[in-house]
Design brief:
single chain, 284 residues, alpha/beta, TIM Barrel, eight-stranded parallel barrel
């Protein structure tokens, strides 16, 4: 090869190396930016994983506050025919100082059919407001609350009235999340986008209908409704369902992944679930 030919080859090689270097810098820059976006405060973005701390003593000091929230059971509202009861959490909950935490309030209808109505909604809203005020979450300008209520068809009208009232009465900027049955997000969509900020679809403890739900998920997109951010809830004791959710891309498509454990949480149980479900990959 002539000297001129060698020089042309060398120039082309240097040009390609220069382009590769520029690309590497750009990718690195974007990676750094994306990394920062993933960990912005709650009001802007939700970290990838939220641990449910349910009705038992829990030590969650091992959690990384940069990637994980805690949604803790705050108590149960019992609807009776003539009054409303609130049974608060009494179990111990140990958390790191910087971890984001917010209350989950369960609604249990023990009435003879009255359910939520104009007479008891005000009492329920008052309880929710107190539960929100009792939480002192660091580095969070806006409060957050989750309502857990498996409303039947006949209870929906009252529940919708409650959510509308909650949106009006809770401080502006409060993140309002609700748990949702799988059926509510696979055709029977009725949740109001104007009054909630997130629906968490419970994809565990689905009983005899579990196989039917998984088959539907293979054909339909999981959605609580147009304009409603949809997250999913999974459990440590359902590895086959979790693996299938990962294979179908449902974990990756979720706004956030909520994780439940029927036993007290340990770091090992938490890490094994994240690996099995693929929580670390949801926003990659």
């Amino acid at each position: 090869m002539s000297v001129g030919g060698i020089n042309r080859v060398a120039f082309a090689l240097r040009h390609r190396l220069a382009l590769a270097a520029v690309a590497l810098v750009l990718v690195s820059g974007w990676a750094g930016l994306i990394g920062k976006i993933l960990y912005l405060p709650w009001g802007t973005n939700v970290p990838e994983t939220t641990v449910w701390a349910w009705e038992r003593n829990e030590d969650l000091t091992f959690l990384d506050p940069k990637t994980t929230n805690v949604a803790f059971y705050a108590g149960t509202i019992r609807l009776r025919d003539d009054h409303v009861e609130f049974v608060p959490r009494i179990q111990k909950l140990d958390l790191g100082e910087e971890i984001r935490r917010y209350p989950v309030v369960r609604i249990h209808d023990m009435s003879s059919g009255n359910g939520l109505n104009s007479e008891n909604i005000e009492q329920v809203v008052s309880i929710l407001k107190r539960s929100l005020q009792d939480v002192h979450s660091p580095n969070s300008e806006d409060g957050s609350i989750q309502i857990d209520y498996d409303a039947t068809s006949s209870q929906r009208q009252g529940y919708l009235a409650l959510l509308k009232r909650v949106r009006k009465e809770l401080p502006k900027g409060t993140h309002i999340a609700v748990t949702a049955l799988a059926s509510w997000c696979l055709g029977d969509r009725w949740l109001p986008k104007s009054d909630i900020d997130e629906a968490v679809v419970m994809l565990f403890s689905m009983g005899a209908g579990k196989r039917d739900v998984v088959r539907l998920l293979e054909k339909q997109r999981l959605s609580a409704g147009e304009g409603i951010p949809t997250s999913i809830g999974v459990a440590t004791n359902e590895p086959l369902v979790n693996s299938r959710l990962r294979e179908l891309g449902i974990v990756r498509a979720a706004k956030s992944v909520f994780v439940f454990c029927p036993l007290p949480w340990t770091e090992d149980r938490y890490q094994r679930l994240k690996t099995k479900v693929g929580c670390d990959e949801t926003k990659s």
